[in-house]
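S.,

As promised, the 1-deoxynojirimycin run. Input:
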Amino acid sequence: MATDLSKSIIYQIYPTSFYDSNGDGIGDLNGIAQKLDYVKELGADIIWLNPIFVSPFKDGGYDIVDYCNIDKKFGTLQDFDNLIKKAHSLGIKILLDLVIGHTSDQHPWFKASKSDKRNKYSDYYVWTNSIFIGAPKAINGMAKRNGNYLVNYYAFQPALNFGYSSIDNSSDDPWVNNKWQMSYLDERIKPLHNEIHKILEFWFSRGVDGFRVDMTASLIKGGGIEAISWLWHTFIDRVKEKYPDAIFMAEWGYPEQSSKCGFDIDYFTHESIGYNDMFRGDPGTNLLPAFECGHSYFAKEGKGSKKTFIEYTLKLSEELNKGNYYSIASGYHDMIRMSINKNHDLLKCVFAFLLTYKNVPLIYYGDEIGMEHNFKINKDGGYVRTGARTPMQWTDGNKRGFTENNRPYLPVGKQKGISVESQEKDKNSLLNFVKDLIKIRKENDVFGFDAEVLVEMNQEYPLIYVRKLGNKQVYVAINPTNKSYKIDKKLSKIIYINNAEVDSDIRLNKYGIVIGEI
Ligand code: NOJ
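Predicted complex:
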């Protein structure tokens, strides 16, 4: 039985940048523990932490050398235990990041695997049988061993060997044959499976509530759903036997696939169907230029189209079983910040949608105050992504209340007013808006994932939908443009109104939002 996430709100924290408790300029676990009250007050009940494990940090911690220990810059296992304890006492669950498609090339397993003497770790990674036999994404000449290793992402992230879904051994040509590939069912892969079971047990027995899973689909090479589904069920089913409330969140962006693999939840970002059409498709706003679509829907010009994204999510509503969920991310450590090209009125429209539409909202730290992207920095293999990972802006002060250190590890944002402290004082701030809407979502089951959503598709703007649960129907109208609209609709009770007037009809001024019972 899957965990009920219908009414959850997830908050993603990039640990390097949330709060520095010891003055070394880097965020840490004790810092996160000290700020849990803030997360609680915001209304989130699940936190996902980007990797906190021992790592050379050449890819923001997604290059692990020890899966069962905390990187010392973040603290200790004791700090982690304290964080879990405090989080649980506040009713907050903690998800860690499971990065098992690859390790760092500094991981002891990989160092041993590179050896020309056969050992326990020789088959832990994907090796060709000769350095003269290439393969896509294979690195050659880096090991004493005769063979090339496959990487999963950057060159220093060798792919762990969970095998291939199907193997074509038909060629006799030694230059092209792939006799070095193993089936995903090969007995030689079992020791690696056991390592993963051990890692999972280590963290679940420490009290972790679940994992976000990095590059979920990448583990088995060769594609197809059958093999990868088998593998993830092997891991997840074992965990759930002992920890039935465990939460597994896929990094896939295809809930119709990840749900078949045993995942509870998946999430949409810039790489998912229609996401950029909604939020991030304007030229220059995307990490992946190929995904730019010209006009986002949430843009003052009002020239975008909601069709792709909405039709896709409506189709999912029919296809997914109860207990399978998806999130729409407000941001992500790999994306340019949502605030690009948007003023706070427009960001309120985005959040009105994220918090009332059918999904499990996933808020990236700092998006709730409209933190901005820094395009000038590059650290820890982040490249342009680094700009979304700057320190949380707690105050308007010099170091934004993030650290006492004069040299924060990543530069702090400069924009005054974009801070928790200043927005807490301003009743019209983005932060107070987000808090209010989360409260409304929590108080009204009709906004939960399990309730229906009916979207008005006959016109592009404004965005109108009805959430429906039993006899209760709530109407949502959002105008993410700088034009105004009149809607012939009468509501029986107003739940929320911003930049709009409601009497016998609804007038949505620019960036207007109306939520009310029918
Ligand atoms: C996806 C993560 O979100 C990203 O930050 C990382 O660089 C790659 N996976 C490689 O692990």
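DSSP finds twelve helices and 18 strands in the chain. The chain has a mean pLDDT of 96.

- D.
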